[in-house]
């Protein structure tokens, strides 16, 4: 006996069951198509602006009063935004600390031209305390005479008063006496202008003649020889003091 071949499983089902399955499948496909159409139409519906409702009411008196109150509050806030001096005083130390941390710019150097333009201050007069010895000094440098010849004249005026020294120098025939006379008048002027002393009441406390540099020159002599000539200079100094001291 030969086995029977397996047939189609639907052959055993009744015809009514097959019709029900076909109708269910068609219903599912129709539902899927409708859902796709609704999704496609949904964005267009969202983009359309909503119609303004005609039920809106005009602003009432209460709304206007609320708006005026809000405007007044804003004005009060603007007025209260002014800086507070106490708060600024509290913030001052912090600002100073912040500026101290930063590097300060270096001061500019003054040019030499500005220094030369500023006039030099005039020296103030020296005030002498009572009982203190005053010495007024005057010096003449590089006088064209030898120190030996200058000492011959200054020995006559050492320790003399100003009036006596003037008379002695006026009658001295030596040429260096003119230089000593000029130096004496310079010392008297220094005493009167710088120390407020009277020139006729002064005497010569010290007078010296020091050697200065020597100028060397040469003179031709016989048989092609040369002789040195020494042109000597001297530094003259006079010190004056009041007669009472």
What does this structure look like?
Helix 6 (162-171) packs antiparallel against helix 7. The N and C termini lie far apart (177 Å). Residues 45-57 have low confidence and may be disordered. The strands form 2 sheets. A 3-stranded antiparallel β-sheet has the order 1-5-2. Strands 3-4 form a two-stranded antiparallel sheet. It contains 7 helices and 5 strands. It is of the alpha+beta class and 245 residues long.
Question: How are the elements arranged and paired?
Answer:
Elements (H helix, E strand, L loop, with lengths): L14 H33 L13 H19 L5 H17 L10 H6 L18 E8 L3 H11 L4 H10 L4 H19 L7 E10 L3 E6 L5 E6 L2 E9 L3
Antiparallel strand pairs: 1-5, 2-5, 3-4
Helix pairs in contact: 6-7
Task: Give helix % range.
Answer: 40-55%
Largest sheet: 3 strands, antiparallel
Output the radius of gyration.
Answer: 62 Å
Please report the distance between the alpha carbons of the first and last residues. Answer: 177 Å
Instruction: State the shape.
Output: rod-shaped
Describe the structure in brief.
With 245 residues, the chain is an alpha+beta fold. Helices cover 47% and strands 16% of the residues.
